[in-house]
Amino acid sequence: MPGWFAGVAGTFLLSLLSAYAFLRLRCRGSGNPFSRRAKWWAMTVIALTAILSTGVGVAAVLVSDHARAAVLGLVIPSGLWIGQVSTERAHRRAAATLRSLVTCLTFPLSRLYDRMGDDMQDWCDDRLEAASRTPQRVAEAAQYYHQQVAGRLKNSQARDQLKRWRESIEHKTSIVRLINLDTTPARLHAALQWHPSTRDSGKYTSGDLPHLADRLESEAQNELYLFLAQVYRLGFHRLLIYPLRPPAPARTKRRPLVDRKAGGE
User: Fold this and answer.
1) CB 149, CB 127: distance < 8 Å
2) Which of 17, 67, 176, 260 could pair with 135 as two cysteines, CB 3.0-4.6 Å apart?
3) What is the pTM of this model?
4) What distance lies between CA 53 and its chain's CA centroid?
5) How far is the C-alpha of 146 from the C-alpha of 144, rounded, in Å?
6) HSE-up of 41 (CA within 13 Å, CB side)?
7) What is the mean pLDDT of the chain?
8) What is the DSSP string of 222-259?
């Protein structure tokens, strides 16, 4: 009996580790499954998967009367990664007796993705709010976040996309500054034609400058949000909020040498 219990406990532990690893793989490129709100659903998914895996392994051993059959249960957590089938297809293919089990597994995954989306939105909103006080700060924030992640990205396509967003944000905020400086119509037209994102003369007309400035500033903020969301999905969840900086470490004031001697130090 102790050996049998140790085997079950070992299978459950391995299932937990396997479910954790495959859940990480499943959520890669989507968000952080262990963020503030999502982590509880992530732990629920891992626990349910480990319980199911252990149960299948134990059942396989009892049916086959062979200890190696327990390996069958350890295969189940891989379904978190390779089994990304929609709920409708899973229900259509599953037998009627297994539909409740499919629902049990897909519901926490669905809630996990919902909470991951909420946490990503909060993360982006905090950084966008801190940067949206002036157009110049929006551009500086885009430059700051781009500097933090560009050199660490191996995916050239993602790196190029972030660069395009950063350049567009810088361009649009620079035009807003030109408008605020009462620039000449010729210079404004030249600035609009300089970058592909503002060459559409029908969309970016210089007839109503306040409206044009508001539109460009709003688009720059939207592009910064898209930039931040992409950065978050790429796994950079610990970036500092620009323009905030980590507090300087507190320095202990040392008393004069005479005072320390008097105090017995």
Assistant:
1) no
2) 176
3) 0.76
4) 28
5) 5
6) 23
7) 80
8) HHHHHHHHHHHHTT---PPPTT--PPPPPPPPPPPHHH
